[in-house]
Amino acid sequence: MTSILALDPAWWQQTFLIKVPIGLLAVLLPAGTIVYLYLFKAVSFMQSRLGPMEAGPYGSMQLLAEVGKWLQKEDIFPTKADKFVFAAAPFVVLMSTFLLVVILPAGPDATFVNLDVGIYFAMAVSSVSVIGILMAGWASANKYSLLGGIRAAGQLIAYELPLILAVVGVVIQAGTMNMQGIVLSQAEGEIFGWGGIGNPFILTQFIGFFIFMVAVQAELTQAPFDMPVAESELVTGYLTEYSGIRFLLFFIGEFASAGVFSAIAAVLFFGGWYVPGIDPTNDIFNVIGPLILAGKMMAIAFLIFWFRFTFPRFREDQLQRLAWKFLIPLSLANIALTGVLKVVL
Amino acid sequence: MSDFLRSYLTVAVFGVLACALVGAFVGLSALIRPTRKQGQKYLTYESGVDPIGTGWGQSNIRYYIFALLFVMFDVEAVFIFPWATRLEAYGYFGLVEMAIFIFILLLGLVYAWRKGVLKWV
Amino acid sequence: MATTESDQMAYIAAQAADARVNVEVETDEGMTLNLGPQHPATHGTLRIVAKLDGEKVLAAEPIMGYMHRGYEKLTEVRTYPQVTTLVNRIDWLGSFANEVPFILAAEQLMEVEAPPRAQWIRTVLFELSRIANISLFLGDMAVQVGATTPVFYAFRDREFVLNQIERVTGGRFHPNFDRIGGLKDDLPKGWIEETGAVLGKMRDFCDEMEELVLGNEIFQARTRGIGVIPPDVALSYGLSGANLRASGIDWDIRRDANVGLVYDEVDWKVWTHPDGDSFSRFWVRLQETREAINILEQLLGGIPSGPIMAKVPRIIKVPAGEAYVATENPLGEMGFYVVSQGDLTPFRVKIRSASFSNMSITPWLLKGVFVPDIISILASLYFILGDIDR
Amino acid sequence: MAEIPEHLLKRAQAAREKAEAEAKSSTGDSTKPEETAVTETTETDEEVILTDEKAEAALATLQQELEGKILDSHIATGRGLWIRVGIQDWRPAAKAAKEALDCKFFDWLSAIDWMPSPYGREHETEQDLINDDPEENDDKEMEWGYTGGETRFQLICRVYSISKKIGVMIKADLPDNDPRALSLIPIYAGANWHEREAREMFGLTFDEHPDLRNIYLPGDFEGHPLRKDYPLLSRRMKPWPGIVDVELLPGDEE
Amino acid sequence: MGLVESGKIPKPLTKLLNMSRRYSMWVYQWGLACCAIEMGAAFASPRYDVMRLGVIPLPASPRQADFLVVSGTVTDKMAPAVRRLWEQMPDPKYVISMGSCANCGGPYWDSYSVTKGVDQVIPVDVYVPGCPPRPEALLEGIVLLQERIMNEDMAERWKGDPIVVE
């Protein structure tokens, strides 16, 4: 982008004036889109309903109404709650999402930061949100919340590993942990000597993709892994005592991280900002790259919400069993297979 | 400043400004929202009855073995990542090395499995 | 399980005794979790107090009465025709089915019998209520184990059945259509054909639920082997309806102790399942819905002509006597024990409602399960608050 | 007592006259339905005999098992079997029914307060005034139903045999001064909640019951609602709004 | 703090705030008796689909609810819980009383255990009559409530002490 405009602003200008606002928007906009498109509309259509129709044409202003409403709702701190932790928890959750977005490349030059250990950083930061959930659950001094928080922690230790191990396959194939590098290696890759569509890792790493998506579903606490919220069991789990703006923050956080994780999956397995047919070094990607990435992200996010509204919920012990007895061995096998193929071929 | 540090500084700036944004939301809400004290509003919610005991009732966390296993495997992941990036360079040697490494870990998992610790409760 | 039967019963009694949770006393160990009176899983206002150790339930006990409306007392100050208005509202999902046993009991005491046409139409409406009731269960069970969508389909298709009930009785919910000696009105024109079409839709709905819920691996993992009720225990707690049949006991009042309805005229099957777990309860109910459609399709073809009302006096005074009539309601056995002393009002009405007995097993059943299982077991036992609390 | 609207009184009056007229002429115009009724009873007669045999066999079994402890019995043709035992035989009777008659299915348990209500129907309509003069109620004797009775409270329990397809109603009189009985929980675990309900509604006591708490009503509730002398206070405050018992059909108004 | 409360917000802005409250109404998932099923039909049945109006039936906890539909019989045992759960909802909050039982006791007007009208316990904004009301009736009640919210003056609403029903 910057090179098109033939500008070369200083680092602080780049960061403060361009990157940060865009980055913040990159979290909030997808979150809003996902809430409106999927939570309100797609789901309603799946359930043969219409969804919001009154606020604006086809209910498109519904989101603004939501924000306006939550802004003026009272913010209740229960007497027994640990006030400071209670207030800080939504910050932690949202912070994790905001930090995740920085490693996403949206074009050859359109990156926020191009970390060498990009995906590693992402994995590290993503688990911070669970700390926020644990804080929320504990600070509420509410039994449902506490159980929800404990379940969230249990879920973290079950799904962090498959998530990380699923990525290893991609890293082996790409030979780098840099997100930009992963995109380029997909764009420049070849399938048995044929480079027509590059080599999107979904083709070679479909086991990895499967494990990654299952783990993301659990990481995002979406059904069938929504035990920390588990509406029919724990009322709203760790969110039970949250009201007003702080609930809205959690709400944004939930859908924003769904968006960001979808975008990471798009980068890892679907070639990120790249589409076949155009030279990946072409500057045009700095303009259309973000749109392509957003499109891929929305498609993957649809998967997440499709599963969420279709599947029943696992029980906590079944989740652990699935993780330890199925997903972890499978992901180790995937690593081994990828490694062997990489070396042999 | 090196590029390396600079990129982490960017990350830090992101974090701070994100916090500021969230804070702005909360502040705006504090400006316009009402506050109405009401008898039982600040009572802990427990499905409409008096809360029994505190919300911090001690509860038996059953998955500390899982937590131990998790730590073990997570440390393993730290080693696997750098290996994964350089696999092409290491070739067969690296492959065999890592196979042994993963095999030992798998052995641990199988042992835990056989001992029946991979069971909730 | 103990070997001899008496040992077994003693064991059950002991279990029932220490399943008791003293809610007033707070103990140090464990955590006492309240589910309800307002809780998404309790279908309204049931309250479950569970003592937990981590996520494991040490003991759980339902506390009811949040919906106790005093039916048995109120019937003593209502005339017989007025009582049907009340009893409609006991099981609010299959409301026509509530009226039938009471009316039949009153008819027994008065020694009148409804004309054949009225009996057929009663049976038709009875089975329609069953579909209206159980179809919601099929969706709701899925919600309780965490799937959001099926309940929307249930509400969607249930609407067609309610429409048909409304077309005959004028009420979607509480028809109050049954009269001592017959029915209030005849069927409207064209109703039979329309109902046939609706039954086709409900068949599709059952298939949809089978694929979407029953066939789902997660649903099976959540319900198979969970909440197993052995047949003897089920009998001694007085479980009835699909809960009993899911424990492998082949007993259906419609077939074995039929009073006043025309189930003998049609060819149908009683479904049982040997497992006795949550899954089999769902399965039996699903098959029962299909069987109800099957029964209805046969009944609709053969409704005899004739009057819909027997000759009964304008002011109904029921001769002295006692009668107990039970019918196989959607939730299980619903019976009315009517004691009359020759007045305009019943002297005493004991309402034997299915959910009350079905739920009385919960302290026994919920011991040692996980918190999520409480919800799936309760959902599979299928209760309606009005039917428990009355 | 609030003012009853004029038109309601008129309608009630009309209804009563009509009913009386019908009662007088009923012998005249009900010949035809009566005939069908007769044929129907002859049709069902065979069934009745069948069920009777079943009930009688069951009664014989129980009599043999209980050795003369059955005080009274009643077989309503085709409608079931009632037996009455002394309160000391309450649990043995249930045990006998379960073991000798295979009545494993516990249907329900409750009680009946046979005392005539001192408040009548609390309707105060025309018909109530004709039929149940509230003052008369005070002098009304207790009338027991099937199998008779001796005291005010009677326990009743129904058990059912799925193999034999016969249900038995077991009744037992409770002593007036101290209404208590042995709990049936050791025999039927399901009796637990039914006994709690009976305790709460009638103020009975069940010995050896592990947990006799209120089941429906809040802890501070006073009185036992299903006792006949428990007044419905709302009815004291204002009259029953639907005072006309029998709605006239549109054509019958005049 | 609390600009709405003190009425310091200019008129057009309050209009905007009212509008957002009107179109984003999260309804408390809480059914009491028979009416709860008709309420469920209004929420979940595609024929009625209350989400069209911007009513989101997600929250199961009172903390996230904007309005409460008292759908069914309130018994004396339940009444304290009704009151408490209503109080635990954050302001601004609204109540729809659905069905005869919640309005006045309905067919249980003479029962010994039924509260004759939920308005003895909590203040009610809209009454929906019927036993039970059809889902359409509830929808109309919601539309009436939305109109009421639209024309509301929050400063007026918050003036003085909170409404207390004893």
Overview features:
heteropentamer, D: alpha/beta, Beta Polymerase, domain 2, 5-stranded mixed sheet, two-stranded parallel sheet, 7 strands, 18% strand, globular, E: 166 residues, alpha/beta, 3-stranded parallel sheet
Give a summary of the structure in a few sentences.
The complex is a heteropentamer of chains A (345), B (121), C (390), D (254) and E (166). Chain D is an alpha/beta fold and 254 residues long.
Summarize the topology.
The complex is a heteropentamer of chains A (345), B (121), C (390), D (254) and E (166).
Chain B: H1 3-32, H2 64-85, H3 87-90, H4 92-115
Chain C: H1 5-18, E1 31-35, E2 47-53, E3 56-63, H2 71-75, H3 80-87, H4 95-110, H5 116-144, H6 150-169, E4 178-179, E5 182-183, H7 191-214, H8 217-223, H9 231-236, H10 242-245, H11 253-256, H12 278-301, E6 321-329, E7 332-340, E8 348-352, H13 354-359, H14 362-365, H15 371-381, H16 385-389
Antiparallel strand pairs in C: 1-2, 2-3, 4-5, 6-7, 7-8
Chain D: H1 6-29, H2 31-66, E1 70-76, E2 80-85, H3 90-100, E3 105-113, H4 126-131, H5 134-139, E4 153-161, E5 166-173, E6 180-182, H6 191-202, E7 205-207, H7 233-237
Parallel strand pairs in D: 2-5, 6-7
Antiparallel strand pairs in D: 1-2, 3-4, 4-5
Helix pairs in contact in D: 2-3
Describe this structure in words.
With 345 residues, chain A is mainly α. Chain A has 13 helices and no strands. Chain A has helices spanning 11-46, 62-71, 83-101, 118-126, 128-139, 143-174, 179-188, 201-204, 206-219, 231-234, 244-270, 284-308, 316-344. With 121 residues, chain B is mainly alpha-helical. The longest helix of chain B has 30 residues, at 3-32. Chain B starts with a helix and ends in a 6-residue tail after the last helix. With 166 residues, chain E is α/β, with parallel strands linked by helices. In chain E, helix 3 (34-44) links the parallel strand 1 and strand 2 (55-56). The two termini of chain E are 30 Å apart. Chains in contact: A-B, A-C, A-E, B-C, B-E, C-D, C-E, D-E. Chains C and D meet through helix 1, helix 2, helix 9, strand 6 and strand 7 of C and helix 1, helix 2, strand 3, helix 4 and helix 6 of D.
